[in-house]
Amino acid sequence: MKKGQVSIFVIVAAIVIVIVIFFFLRGDLGDIRDTKLRPVESMILGCAEDVTQDSLNIIGIQGGFYNEPPRNLDIEGVYIPYYYYEGEFLMPENSFIEGELADLVNDYLGFCIDNLEIKDHEITYSKPSTTVLIGKEEVSFNIDMMVDIKKGEMTSQLNLAEHPANKPSALGKILDVAAYLTDSHLEETICLTCLYDMLDERELFLDFTDFGNSSTLVVFSENKTSEDLYVFEFLNKYTEEELESESIQFVGRETA
Fold it and tell me: I need a labelling partner for 49 at 20 to 30 A (CA). Which of 67, 117, 226, 230 fits?
């Protein structure tokens, strides 16, 4: 073998070694970058956790609505919807409530991220698109949103779709009983025994309060699925003829 050929082999071998070292170090640096940016990713995921829980709380206080209901009582910017209004049935479907929850997350998640106390980081994100499913024991949030994080030469991309938020919640159980209670207005009487059995099976509490103006405030509550008390409320409004009905009076007053 000639000296020139040997030199070429040596040079090629050296180049290969340099390339291998380069990619090895590049991989290590990538790991370091990921590690340094991981706390920021955790803060963003914390935003998703907080916003999804807040959306459940708002939906509870406003009886399944984020936007203004068709009939409601506005108490300083809080909408308490009517589920029954003088013969009109207004309780929303579960799919509608899922959409309201999704709208809440879509509207407030970016606001939460923008207000994180993160210095020397550049954070950009796509417009969130959230899908929600109300189950018996939990409410699942899937947020389609890409978040890009940059600090100096370090970069990271967080895909929130890979981190679904499954929140333990009695919302599905509450909606079951609320639907039964609302639909009972179609009958001349309401089966209170059936109602109490449903509440016991689901470990829910229910209160009725005379709210004036021929209206009754219906408040569901539970404290089994989380440390904090969860509340879901709505109103029913009756005609004078309905108030004279023994069943309506019993539901509205005897259980208060």
Answer: 67
